[in-house]
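On clarity, I found the account of how folds are encoded harder to follow than it need be. What matters is that the chain and its backbone geometry are given together, residue for residue. For the editor and my fellow referees, an illustration may be useful. For illustration, here is how one protein appears when written out as sequence plus structure tokens:

___
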Amino acid sequence: MRFAKSTKFIAAIVALTVSMLGSPAAYAFGLAEDASARAIILNGLVSPTAPAQVESLTANAGASYNRVDLSWPIPGDGGSPITSYKVFSNGSLLFTLDSGYVNWPAPSDTTVSLGLDGFSKNTTYDFEVFAVNEIGTSLSANARAITVDANIAVEALPHGLVNSAYSQNVTINWTGFFGNEIAGFEASGLPAGLTFNSVCSEGCYFGIEGTPTIAGTFNATMTLTLIDGSQLAAPFTVVIDGPPVVPTVGGKLLKVNFAADSAKLTAKSTAVLRKLVAYAHEKHLMQIAITGHTLKVASSKNSWRSRLGVMRAKAIAKYLHGLDSKLMLTVAGKGLVNKGRIATVELQGMSVA
């Protein structure tokens, strides 16, 4: 159909076309000039199409091991409103997003953001997203994400002593999931006499309590179960020390001699202490209790005797620490009623082997 070139005719054609089509948003038309006929040609009408291809899809591992966060720009709708987005994972339909979900974009949004869960930890996933309207389905965009790993670890525990009450808080660190995803904890391989307790309310308490009846080093396992049924495990060690032993050299109890009323170590005393450190290394002793004893010199000097006992014990501890700074030493002093002019210091070591 041809019309003489006229601005009025062009306006009339546009108005007539819009009136005939009813909804100008649903169609497209154009005007072109035929140079030879000096006329305006009304081009053919264009029907709506499927949405434009989804582009620039991003996929990132979420804060939790089983979550992936997706986002993409809203594509052109092809002249018909987009009604849904179909998300595929590794070739299978995973999720359909439509206006019934809170993630559905508002009219002013330019991108779509969607978080999905139900994935396995430390796993690679390929994603595709298709836009859908009443006419059809768009081409897709592709993206890849590797979900975060999930781990737990148990911090080191203090040593216990056989046949003595043991009560310790257990610190469990985890990554790759949230606290509200935890279903429970369980500890196995504990020494006889000890039990693991966990209580979760606003926070979680983990403890190992009881009285161990066997000494030794025990390799235990902490198992965490998540609400999706998956489990994570972490090894940890519980060490129960044996009963205190008294170090001897040549079958004799080690005693450190002091001159009367003195806390100064003699050459003979330091030789004995060097033997003690060698013994501690041989027997894997790390804890040594030192008690300083003094002579009875006069009833009026009881307080002095006690102070002197502590001074002697500290003198020994200082010397031992200089020989091996890893030794854990405790000191005490008390007055004893002894005959003679020589004071003694008794030493007891605690085995951790």
About this structure: The chain has a mean pLDDT of 74. The radius of gyration is 42 Å. The chain is about 15% helix and 40% strand. Helices lie at 7-21, 267-283, 302-323.
